[in-house]
Design goal:
Elements lengths: L4 E4 L2 E6 L1 H10 L3 E5 L3 H6 L6 E2 L5 H8 L7 E4 L5 H11 L5 E4 L2 H7 L10 H14 L3 E2 L1 H9 L4 E5 L3 H6 L6 E2 L5 H8 L6 E5 L4 H12 L6 E4 L2 H7 L17 H18 L2 E4 L3 H6 L5 E5 L3 H6 L6 E2 L2 H6 L1 H4 L2 E2 L2 E5 L5 H11 L3 E6 L23 E3 L1 H10 L4 E5 L3 H6 L6 E2 L5 H7 L6 E5 L4 H11 L6 E4 L2 H7 L30 H12 L1 H8 L8
Parallel strand pairs: 2-6, 3-4, 3-5, 5-6, 7-11, 8-9, 8-10, 10-11, 12-17, 13-14, 13-16, 16-17, 18-22, 19-20, 19-21, 21-22
Antiparallel strand pairs: 1-2, 3-15
Helix pairs in contact: 6-10, 6-24, 9-12, 11-23, 12-17
Length: 539
């Protein structure tokens, strides 16, 4: 199976070739292909099913995303040296079947593998495939604007997350995140002659949302807003901002009808069935990776949940499947309290070649775990802590001797950070030390809560003999103490590459970038064909 070994410290890691990984994908074996670079480099080029698990977050995410410790893991980078470091860290966390992708990203391409841009590519490519096979109806932005201007009998349903909807939305639209559509559509359009238009930011959630309603037998005329808010903006039409319109509760009559339709869809797709009593056996089965997802809204999940289930609203689960469930070939178990959202979500995941179960017969009373869900974390290292008041005194007395390193996300850093703090990526610690002022005599590490900073502190102690402290409670505690903050990209010890800027986010996107994004999406079906590992089927 393996060609050679690479030694790192106490561990020997085998290589796996492009052909070996491809064979595993085609066979449906469980395999986690992990790209451990930051999100922006990942988004520039990666294999189709490479899930982004940045090196700096491994202790925070590994146990939730990789629940079986002997699952086959193949780690890759693009020559930065992160793959071997990440493999070593995963081995220390108890993962026993860790290997490296031979040649990394470039090796994949050289061996004949297809490389993809952007993020959540499997889901976006699947959405394009759905449209190409089923010819999902759509309307252009000018056509929808004309319907609005004419006062036509229409309702516009925004299938994105609620926070995305609040940022910018189509005039008059209502927030109905993807998995809610089939459950709520009849409430929002009780007249079967009302035209339903589904939109998202770009294409995927519009296509999947529209086709969900069509598949589920909603009798209204239904169409996607072609190219979403991007298409709306490119047509130089005005968006709304800060809206809060959302869906009403579903009547029992409409819920029953929607549940029957969604169940028929799931059965047609080959979704498997599970009773509540069978959950324990699946959770105890150590021979398979099994993900347990509650596809209801986050508010419902917070009110009460099932044991072992984590929140994954159905529309986002279909949109970001490789991030929620990075082990390809794993089992996915879905739950809801209405019989609609889980079945509708499952029928898409099954078409994406996932083994998926729906838990039948659940009632609201079954969701009785009220403690907040918390990800299982790697053991936290012992650190030297300093409180906000003491740090404030140090910075006032000898600012040139204190280097505050902030390991929060680049987005959060630019929103607020301790005055003088440096934005830092854990993956670049060694390089960071060479760029900081020579006057530094002490390091203080922080992030929002200092959780990630604790793990980074253990790394930093291996690179310096200077004192290393962690801010107790992180930047949140600093703010709570009433201490000042600043904003902007004021001090960058690392580049802002931890997050890929989506061309459809925010309100200041360049027209060229938005159009290029649409052109990229249009080409995904051809890329799927060249890759040949997806196993997608559209019913």
């Amino acid at each position: 199976m393996t060609k050679n070994l690479l030694q790192s410290g106490l561990f020997d890691f085998p290589y796996r070739s492009y052909h070996q990984v491809r064979e595993a994908l085609l066979a449906g074996d469980e395999i986690a292909l992990l790209d451990v670079r930051e999100e922006d480099p990942h988004a520039q080029a990666h294999p189709l099913f490479a899930a982004n698990l940045p090196y700096g977050r491994i202790e925070l995410d590994a146990y939730s995303k990789l629940p079986r410790h002997d699952v086959s893991i193949v780690v890759l980078d693009s020559g930065e040296g992160l793959a071997i470091s990440a493999a070593s860290r995963l081995r220390r966390l108890g993962y026993s079947n860790v290997s490296l992708l031979e040649g990394g990203v470039e090796g994949w391409h050289t061996a004949g593998g297809e490389l993809f841009r952007d993020v959540n590519v499997p889901s976006k490519a699947f959405g394009e495939l759905v449209e190409s096979v089923l010819h999902t109806p759509s309307l252009s932005a000018p056509e929808v604007q004309a319907l609005i201007d004419n006062g036509d009998n229409i309702v516009i349903l925004d299938a994105r997350r609620y926070d995305e909807y609040q940022t910018m939305s189509i005039p008059g639209s209502v927030s109905v995140p993807g998995a809610e559509l089939a459950l709520r559509a009849r409430e929002l359009a009780p007249d079967a002659s009302t035209r339903i238009i589904v939109n998202c930011a770009g294409r995927t959630r519009s296509i999947i949302g529209t086709q969900s309603l069509i598949n589920a037998g909603v009798p209204n005329p239904i169409a996607a807003l072609r190219n979403g808010t991007i298409g709306w903006t490119l047509a130089q039409q005005k968006l709304e901002h800060g809206q809060s319109r959302t869906y009403p509760p579903a009547s029992e009559t409409n819920r029953t009808q929607a549940a029957q339709d969604a169940r028929a869809l799931a059965d047609r797709a080959g979704v498997l069935r599970l009773e509540h009593a069978g959950l324990g056996a699946l959770h105890a089965d150590a021979t398979r990776t099994t993900y347990f997802f509650d596809v209801r809204s986050p508010a419902e999940f917070d009110h009460g949940r099932l044991p072992h289930f984590r929140s994954a609203p159905g529309g986002q689960l279909v949109q970001e499947t490789e991030q929620f469930a990075p082990v390809r070939g794993a089992r996915i178990v879905l739950a809801d309290s209405d019989g609609v959202r889980a079945n509708l979500t499952a029928h898409w995941l099954r078409q994406m070649n996932h083994e998926v179960y729906v838990v039948d017969g659940l009632q609201a009373a079954d969701f009785n775990v009220t403690e907040p869900w918390k990800a299982e974390l790697a053991p936290q290292p012992q650190v030297s802590e300093v409180d906000a008041a003491t740090l404030s005194t140090w910075l006032a007395e000898t600012p040139e001797e204190i280097a505050v390193l902030d390991f929060t996300s680049g987005v959060n850093y630019q929103k607020r950070h301790i005055p003088g703090a440096w934005f830092a990526l854990r993956s670049e610690l060694a390089a960071i030390l060479t760029t900081l002022p020579k006057s530094v005599r002490r390091y203080v590490l922080t992030c929002g809560s200092s959780l990630l900073a604790r793990y980074a502190a253990a790394d930093l102690r291996t690179l310096t003999e200077l004192p290393v402290h962690v801010l107790d409670g992180g930047t949140g505690a600093w703010v709570a103490a009433g201490l000042p903050v600043e904003s902007g990209a004021t001090r960058l010890a690392s580049p802002l590459i931890d997050r890929y800027r989506r061309p459809y986010e925010g309100t200041d996107n360049r027209a060229e970038a938005m159009q290029a994004y649409l052109d990229w999406e249009f080409g995904l079906v051809d890329q799927l064909g060249r890759d040949g590992t997806h196993g997608f089927r559209v019913i």
